[in-house]
Write a structure and sequence with these properties.
heterodimer, A: 388 residues, mainly alpha, two-stranded parallel sheet, two-stranded antiparallel ribbon, 18 helices, 4% strand, globular, disordered N terminus, B: 223 residues, 10 helices
Chain lengths: 388, 223
């Protein structure tokens, strides 16, 4: 994994050890709370995995505090989440069902785990007919605790507070392509048409309209690249074979090949309709990245560093990022003149930027620990089970 | 089955149209929304285009009413040509959406115009009546569930004029639900929205094209 250029520009010790530890304490306590249930589980692999993941998350946060940088440490967590999520998910599926494919009877009985990617497609059918077009259970059941109501409630609360940070701190899928984007030292493809940034909006519009017309989650049926590494409809007809082929081609192209060639999160930037939907919430969210025009020397370091092309020449001129900013911190860490800063809307820019960063990171890392931490612990416990 | 009286069927048609309007709204949304967003700004232009669209849609309804009355009540369940009609309409919708996303092909084009029209954001295509009429007619004969219900009822009526009146009133009931689409005029048309709408139209064209082609292929090889 190549190191991010920005981290070399910052002083190695932004804060002292004591102060960094003190700032890390709330996250340590939060992690203890989040993993407390896992510590009581009879599976010793899960207990051990929970301790390992809790330490992993806490140490990364400590390093964020100590170095004053964000992107690099967040990336370690995010890539681990992306790579390990399929391990735990597939292991769970195989343990429960014996296969990664979803049999029709499971769909009918509402045992399909709810995925947040469906949320934009639910809105219009629910408004018009009060029908949820997903074969899951609205309230939690013994066999499916990840119910629709709980997932939507959590997602809405976190998105209102943190905006599109979901895509950089909680999404199970983005880490896979971020991992592949980190492999090459330099991009093979440098020139990318910025108009491709509009494609996720078009896909969002198309799937929302088609889902309302057909009463089925069209994205899950036809376009989700991550079906290739999670679960998919059992291939029993020409149609399901075509669907599976689309999933695999999209996964190989957008999640592996293009990130390797461009060093960008191409699926997130140029395809993901959920990301476009999340961008709407960036408008009403208090956290943002500002670019101080007085300090900015137009070196384009922030634009080059941004993994989703969420900074354009025009947005730099306006002193802001685009609404597709995922708040990963790459631009802030990359800026040698400290022109790109974390900011809370309604407050003054400048000296308070580190306080804004801290405020944001506590929320974002708490979310990461809550969602990603449990996923990581589950996956690591499976790996330990195979090793031990 | 006893044929309903004309006075009873008048109310039934209107209520059926109003009641199934949300389904019509959802069924026609993938066609109407990108089309309305591609249109340039201006309430007058959009209202005019919507009027043409609805008139053509009414023509489609009336054509279907004639066919339904002629074929009797067998249409929705056993009519052998249903798959053909459905497949062809989907393919034609796909072609219409492709034209809307890319624009009409020019007979003579300069070298600069030979690139993809899809990415020439902001270039406003010509908006005559043909496009709106084509989309309206094709959505008018598209076999959505409320339409089939109305077709069954119209087929049970005693005369062709009764079937036509039934469909006119059914159309009136559903047309009310198209008024919200005019609110898309509130969305300020800019380069980005026009491009998004065009890409959306292209994506939807792929879907309708696949649906139409697979229906026809299944009809050819499996029947």
């Amino acid at each position: 994994m190549s190191s991010h250029p920005s981290t070399l520009e910052r002083p190695p010790a932004f804060r002292g050890v004591g102060k960094s530890l003190l700032l890390t304490l709330p996250i340590l306590l939060w992690s203890l709370l989040m993993f407390s249930r896992a510590f009581l589980q009879p599976r010793h692999e899960l207990r051990l995995a929970s301790v390992v993941v809790m330490l992993f998350m806490t140490v990364l946060f400590f390093l964020m505090m100590r170095t004053g940088t964000t992107y690099r440490w967040r990336r370690y967590f995010f890539v681990a989440l992306g790579l390990l999520f399929p391990v735990g998910f597939i292991a769970d599926l195989v343990a429960v069902r014996g296969t990664m494919s979803i049999p029709i009877d499971r769909m009918v009985s509402g045992d399909t785990p709810f995925c947040y990617m469906v949320i934009p497609m639910l809105v219009i059918p629910a408004a018009l007919t009060r029908t949820i077009i997903f074969p899951g259970s609205i309230l939690p059941t013994a066999s499916n605790p990840h119910s629709i109501a709980i997932m939507i409630g959590l997602w809405l609360a976190l998105t209102l507070v943190l905006g599109k940070a979901w895509c950089s701190y909680a999404c199970f899928f983005g880490g896979i392509e971020e991992g592949f984007a980190s492999v090459a030292k330099k991009p093979k493809i440098r020139r990318i048409d910025p108009r491709l940034r509009l494609v996720p909006w078009a896909i969002l519009l198309a799937i929302v309209l088609l889902s309302a017309a057909l009463f089925e989650p069209v994205y899950c049926m036809w376009l989700c690249p991550f079906k290739a590494v999670t679960e998919y409809p059992a291939v029993r007809s020409v149609q399901t074979a075509i669907q599976m082929a689309i999933f695999v081609v999209l996964f190989l192209g957008l999640v592996i090949v293009l990130p390797l060639l461009t060093k960008k999160r191409t699926q997130c930037a140029f395809f993901c309709p959920f990301g476009a939907f999340q961008s709407l919430f960036n408008k009403i969210n208090i956290f943002e990245i500002r670019i101080d025009r007085e300090k900015c020397i137009d070196c384009a370091a922030c634009r080059n560093a941004c993994p989703t092309m969420a900074i354009s020449k025009e947005s730099v001129q306006a002193g802001r990022t685009l609404s597709s900013c995922m708040k990963c911190g790459a631009c802030v860490d990359a800026c040698r003149k400290h022109a790109a800063v974390w900011h809370v809307k309604g407050t003054a820019t400048g000296p308070s930027s580190e306080r804004s960063r801290l405020l944001f990171l506590y929320g974002a890392w708490a979310m990461a620990t809550m969602f990603g931490g449990s996923v990581l612990a589950n996956s690591v416990s499976y790996l330990l089970h195979f090793v031990m | 089955m006893i044929a309903p009286s004309l006075s009873a069927s008048v109310w039934e048609a209107l209520v059926l149209g109003l009641a199934t309007g949300p389904v019509c709204l959802a069924s026609c949304g993938p066609i109407v929304v990108p089309w309305m967003l591609i249109l340039p700004n201006g309430w007058r232009l959009r209202s005019h285009q919507m009027t043409v669209f609805l008139t053509a849609r009414l023509m489609g309804y009336l054509l279907f009413a004639c066919a339904a009355w002629w074929a009797g009540s067998a249409i929705p369940h056993a009519w052998g040509g249903r798959a053909w009609a459905f497949g062809c309409v989907q393919l034609l919708l796909a072609i219409a959406l492709v034209i809307y996303s890319l624009g009409w092909p020019k007979t003579r084009s300069s070298a600069a115009d030979r690139g993809s029209r899809l990415i020439q954001i902001g270039a406003v295509p010509q908006h005559g009546r043909t496009g709106a009429a084509t989309l309206g007619f094709l959505t008018g004969i598209n076999l959505c569930p409320p339409f089939l219900v109305a077709g069954v009822r119209a087929a049970q009526l005693g005369s062709l004029p009764s079937a036509l009146i039934f469909f006119v009133l059914f159309f009136a009931g559903t047309a009310v639900w198209f008024a919200p689409f005019l609110a898309l005029g509130l969305v300020q048309r800019n380069r980005a929205i026009a491009t998004v709408a065009r890409i959306t139209a292209a994506l939807l064209a792929c879907y309708y094209g696949f649906l139409g082609a697979s229906t026809l292929i299944a009809r050819i090889f499996y029947v």
